[in-house]
Amino acid sequence: MPLLTPETLGDLLAEYDFENGCITHVSIDDPFTPGGAVARVVVDARDREHGWPWTPVEFRLSGLRDYRIEHGKGFSGMLYFDPVVSRFADTAHGELLYLDLDPVDGPSQYEPVDAVDIVGRSQCFFAAEQLTWEVLPVEASPRLAGGQPTADG
C-alpha cells in the first residue's frame, strides 16, 4: 500500500477523482492498544485512467489519534471535493497526518493553517501517525457490489 502524505496526494488525485464520491465503509479497529487504533475508510472514487468507472479506494490510518464523522449536520458521506492531506505537529502525539474528507472549499482553495483549523471546521477528518491507500475490488463497496451506479445515484 502506497504511503499518502501531503507530498504524494497529487499522485493519488491524478489517478482518482473523489468529487461526488461516497464514503461507503468506516471501521475503527482496537482503539485501546498502546500504538493507537487503525481506521479503514472506503470511498468510492472515479478511476480517471480506465474510463471513469466508480472504484472503491481504501484509506488506512495507523496510530489513529483523533477523528470526527458527523451525521445529520450537513455531512452525508458524500464528498463534494477531493480530500486534503496535511501534516501538523501535535503537542501530545508529535507529527500527525490529517485526512480531511470535508474540505469546505476544496483542496485548490483551502490550505489549513494548523490542526485546530481542521478539527474545528471539518465534519469528517482523521488524524493518525501513518496514512496509506489502496484500490479494492468493486465488491468491497456496498454501493458498487450490485453494479455501477447510474447518473442518478
pLDDT < 50 stretches: none
Mind describing the biggest β-sheet?
A: 4 strands, antiparallel
Q: What order do the helices and strands follow?
A: HEEEEEEHEE
Number of helices: 2
Rg, please? 15 Å
Q: In order across it, which strands form the biggest sheet? A: 1-2-3-8
Chain-averaged pLDDT: 87
Q: Quote the distance from N terminus to C terminus.
A: 29 Å
**Global shape:** globular
Strand content: 35-45%
Helix content: under 10%
When the domains are counted, the total is 1
Number of distinct beta strands: 8
Query: How would you classify the helix and strand content by structural class?
Result: mainly beta
Summary, kept brief:
The chain has 153 residues and is mostly beta strands. Helices cover 9% and strands 42% of the residues. The chain has one domain.
Jot down its keywords:
mainly beta; 2 helices; 153 residues; 8 strands
Structure description:
With 153 residues, the chain is mainly β. The chain has one domain (9-140). The protein is 9% helix and 42% strand. It contains 2 helices and 8 strands, in the order αββββββαββ. The strands form 2 sheets. A 4-stranded antiparallel β-sheet has the order 1-2-3-8. Strands 4-7-6-5 form a 4-stranded antiparallel β-sheet, covered by helices on one side. Strand 2 (37-47) and strand 3 form a beta hairpin. The longest helix is centred in the first third of the chain and has 7 residues, at 9-15.
